[in-house]
Description:
The protein has helices at residues 63-73, 81-96, 105-119, 121-131, 137-152; strands at residues 11-18, 24-31, 37-43, 50-52, 58-60, 102-104. By secondary structure, the protein is α+β, with helices and mostly antiparallel strands. The strands form 2 sheets. The protein has a 3-stranded antiparallel sheet, with no helix packed on it. The chain has a 3-stranded mixed sheet with strand order 5-4-6. Helix 1 (63-73) packs across helix 2 and helix 1 packs across helix 4. The longest helix has 16 residues, at 81-96.
Amino acid sequence: MKCPFCGNEDTRVIDSRPADDGSSIxxxxxxxxxxxxxTTYEKIETIPMVIIKKDNVREPYDRxxxxxxxxxxxxxxxxxxxxITNMVDEIESVIFSxxxxxxxSSVIGELIMEKLQKIDQVAYVRxxxxxxxxxxxxxxxxxxxxxxxxxxx
Length: 153
């Protein structure tokens, strides 16, 4: 591993432990030449995931798109960043567990709605209104009625 300070290629690992996410290794290293310390993260290389959009266009998986959609839905709601991060982690865990490396965006959208409905119903309705492309008030109201019925049960 090359030292980011002096460029020396002789560095040694002084500490290794699992990173907070559990899916990578955090390593503290020290340069043999300048004695400065730095941290590296080692992660398993995976085959890239491809998302199939509604119009059948394929694009590389981008975690930030899921985060962005959830963040917009949760704007001014009492949903913490930690809850959002956990939600995205759970969704990623599900889609990366599929045997196929091509996942329709509709599957991701449904997973997001399922998670949002459990955390914040207003955020759920916001996301659903964009995702399901509600065309009129009647469609919007029927979705709200479903939530009300579930809430009363």
